[in-house]
Amino acid sequence: MTFALGTIPLGTTVSPEDSFAILDRFAEAGGTMLDTANNYPFWNEGCTGDESEATIGAWLAARGNRDGVYLSTKGGARPTVPGDRTLASAEGVTGKALRAAIEGSLKRLGVDHVDLYWTHIEDRETPLEDTLEALDEFHRTGKILKAGSSNMPAWRVEQARGVSRAHGWLPYTHLQLRFTYLQPRPGALLREMGHKLATAETLGYVRHAPDLTLWAYNTLMFGSYTNPDKPIDPAYDHQGSTERLKVLRGVAAELGATVNQVVLAWHRRQGIVPIVGVTRMEQLEEAIGAAQIDLDDELFARLEDPA
Q1: How do residues 263-303 score in pLDDT, each as one tens digit?
Q2: Where is the NADP-dependent oxidoreductase domain positioned along the sequence (predicted)?
Q3: Helix or strand or coil: residue 288?
């Protein structure tokens, strides 16, 4: 399966029973990559941030299929003040904070290691050495296999990778940023706290670093591509988007695919791993079907240059 399943709503917006059904179907279809964090979904009233990891942990225990799952989680953005629904009190990515974060994640997930561990936010108040030494420690002790940076600009990632190289530590090999087919106006502010965009600089950086992989979140824009009840974020509402949507819909019609499927295929065509969050089984089936959509050079060129 060529996408990672986003798990923010599992166990909360999606009931535990339905969450298990979604995870079962994803695995049945050949899906392996699960993306979670130690704070999902803390911003919802009544939630602590334990819920997503705990639901995945319960499913792994019930199914006994840990070896068939590529498990990715994050630390650094969990609030330290009870009831805080913002990032104002986020734990950060100091070595001390991450040591507590990884232990909490492993306990909730019911595993002894994760395949990929992300620092969830950029924390410029913490020296890179403090963060990276902790990640290397986790790797040496078998708690993580790979390390990734989430919501960090390309220049900062390269700076971090240089520090890791100098010390012989585990380097960042994965980036996670917000990215989709529509592009926001330059300088536009996003409504969602903590979200950082993949830029042309990011794409160029990843393209020329063979050991780097980009995972993209918010790929389907909260359903805005197809759901008239979910208008496009004002940051993306401009003439350029109108032109891109016209071409996108035309390509989808030619392929007999949905708009969402073409968006996911567009990510894959660039070697990007799209993260897809679902709340209903039909949404998952649509994403699974996107694996059958291949964009040839001509279609990709049309999508890239809609004018």
Answers
A1: 999 999 999 999 999 999 999 999 999 999 999 999 999 99
A2: 4-304
A3: helix
